[in-house]
Amino acid sequence: MLPLTDVLSTLDLTESGDGMFVAEQRDNPSHHIVGGHIAAQALMAASRTVPGRLPHSLHVYLLRAGDARYSVQMEVSTLRDGGSLSTRRVIGRQGEEVLLEALVSFSVPMDAADYQQPRPEVPDPETLPPVEEQLQAFADEAGGFWVRPQWIERRYIDPPPRSAVDLPEPPERTRMWWRPAEPVTDDPIVNSCLLTYFSGTSLLDSTLTMRRGTHVTTFSALIDLAIWFHRPADLTDWVLSDQVSPSGINGRGLASATLYNRAGQLVCSTTQEMYFGRRRG
Fold this sequence. Notes:
This protein is of the alpha+beta class. Helix content is 18%, strand content 36%. It has six helices and twelve strands. The radius of gyration is 18 Å and the shape is globular. This is Acyl-CoA thioesterase domain-containing protein. Belongs to the C/M/P thioester hydrolase family. It holds the Pfam family 4HBT_3. GO terms for molecular function: fatty acyl-CoA hydrolase activity. Keywords: Hydrolase.
């Protein structure tokens, strides 16, 4: 995981032409571009071409892993600008290789019916220990991977994947409170991008729990991601993510989540599919 300052800096894309943006990456030992990260950058690129409207849905296909040592070129095409909806296509490239294709839809506020399913009854985040305390028994594993600081704080209601793998039966759901580890802007576009990054990485918890694997022992790659943004998120406070993995087949794992703010309002809904091709040595 990148620190929050690096995440935010990589969302500050450089415009290189009409509808063209440069998305800088941050290298890591495997040189692998994180799917949730590049999806967030695609959302930011599209948003830069639609002033005055907020994203309400994002659909991304991750086609190649890419190389985190090099930047990604984001090409945004205008498909539609209607009275209330705008649609953009984003293609992310490194050289001649297409890494990502995305469709992003934007909307304006409307006076219409407002309803949602209620937020689950769960303990408040202040009553739960940080994940670093929950996984302290595994602090010596994998070079301290489980207790390493990340750009988000997490407080699990259900056992996190490293604990769940040792249980007789995997828990049906993975619920957690989370928020950025440092103060963030109230810009709704930036916060939608952070939600995208979070969703693209956190839902892996649910599929790993059902597969009885961990982040350290299991190879995985995000292959597609869909998010519906219902209302702007306030990331100065905790957000509840209620996650479930209903299916795993042919080396793929499907996961879905609903995210709520502290007041119980539905912030976004998301579904993604992960690819598990091989086990790490």
